[in-house]
Amino acid sequence: MAGQPYKLALRLTPRSGRDAVLGIKSIEGLDEVQACVTAPPDNGKANKALCKLIASELGIAKSKVEVVQGQTSRHKRLAIDAPEPLIAAWLSELPVL
Prior knowledge:
By secondary structure, the protein is α+β, with helices and mostly antiparallel strands. The chain has one domain: Conserved Hypothetical Protein Mth637, Chain: A, CATH 3.30.1200.10. Helices cover 25% and strands 35% of the residues. It is built from two helices and five strands; from the N terminus they run E-E-E-H-E-E-H. It has helices at residues 45-58, 84-93; strands at residues 6-13, 20-27, 30-36, 65-69, 75-80. It has a five-stranded mixed beta sheet. A hairpin with a 5-residue loop joins strand 4 and strand 5 (75-80). The termini are far apart.
């Protein structure tokens, strides 16, 4: 990824009934995007599904999204190589949970 990618805090639920971004929830003073994917957390399948989901939501290539922290945790940090105004607009449309 070129330049400084946007860092996004996220909580992922694997093996869900659907792939979806649910909204934003404040946990211990940190706002996290809540998402779920149908893929199991085996061999990075859930992480790949998450990157594909976020890229689809933002309308960017899935290669522009990567998990940079929390590869084996539900709490993750994503690096997103996209214009910050695009990400900010998307985040502002998400419901607060």
